[in-house]
Amino acid sequence: MKKEELQAIIFDLDGVIADTVHLYYKANKKVADQLNVSFSEELNQQLQGISRVKTVELIAAQGNVHLTVEKKEQLADEKNKHYQALIKEMTKDHLLPGIQLLLEDCKKQGIKMAIASSSSNANTVVDALGIRPFFDCIVDVRKIKKGKPDPEIFLTAADQLKVTPYACVAIEDGEAGVKAINQIDMVSIGVGKHLKEEDMNFHVYSTADLCLKTIKEVFEKARKGTDYNSMYTKN
User: Fold this and answer.
1) What kind of architecture, by CATH, is found in domain 21-87?
2) Which residues participate in Mg(2+) binding (predicted)?
3) Cβ neighbourhood burial of 83 (10 Å; 0-12, 13-18, 19+)
4) 52 marked among binding-site residues
């Protein structure tokens, strides 16, 4: 395979493949309510891709609430248990628009695929959605020493796929994840209106706008130093 050809796509999970953002909101809101801190959907979006303990810290900071290490860990554990109860009800209906077809096309064309999620519940969600056969690897976040925005999880995914970062596209909906991708030699695609277009190689408002043909074109343009965003008109 030529060096400039796309070999692999690395996906974040929540907000890119799975419609779980509203479930995270419920779990995070419960923490905020316990701390008597206001919590918004905007803040919830900013917390995507961040570890559980760090999420608790940031929620507490909204109300200038000081927490001991033990209390942070307790709230993080309670939040995770609440989220785990919510995801048990997930089905294929929680796949985001266009994702099933994208995964099928990648598989048919021999594009390797990995999941690089900060969630320790990634395997549970993947199984609930019935999409495990599509993926060559799911990075175990428990073995990652530095969370997003550090790029370790994306580099680990490329290593497990046995491809170079240069041959990869990574897709994210979280600001921390996009920052991580942009620190390494991968092409970045961001999903969601909350992201800033100039911070990535390509930006879509919805996963419905993602297809393999477009992703390949984005990759090729990025490798040639061309701005694909300027060529694309969002609906």
Assistant:
1) Orthogonal Bundle (1.10)
2) 12, 14, 172-173
3) buried
4) yes
Query: Is 121 one of the annotated binding-site residues?
Result: yes
Task: Supply 234's token pair.
Answer: 């969002």
| Reported confidence tier of residue 231, pLDDT bands at 50, 70, 90 | very low
51 annotated as belonging to a binding site for a ligand: yes
DSSP state of 36: T
Options 12, 127, 150, 227, the catalytic residue? 12
Catalytic residue among 14, 33, 127, 209: 14
Residue at token pair 């917390």: 47
pLDDT tens for each residue of 77-96: 999 999 899 998 899 999 99
Cis preceding-peptide flag for 149 (omega within 30 of 0): yes
Report domain extents, the chain: 8-18+93-231, 21-87
The model's pLDDT over 31-66, given as tens digits with 9 standing for 90+, comes to: 999 999 999 988 888 887 788 899 999 999 999 999
Catalytic: 199?
A: no
Backbone angles phi, psi at 143, to 5 degrees: -100, 0
Here the tokens at position 212 are 């393999």
The model's pTM: 0.83
Residue 206 labelled as part of a binding site: no
Q: Is 14 a catalytic residue?
A: yes
Cα–Cα distance for residue pair 214/197, rounded to 1 Å? 16
Q: Which secondary-structure segment (H or E) carries 175?
A: helix 175-182
Considering the domain 8-18+93-231, what is its CATH architecture? 3-Layer(aba) Sandwich (3.40)
Task: For 50-97, give the DSSP string.
Answer: --HHHHHHHHHHHTT----HHHHHHHHHHHHHHHHHHHTT--GGGBPT
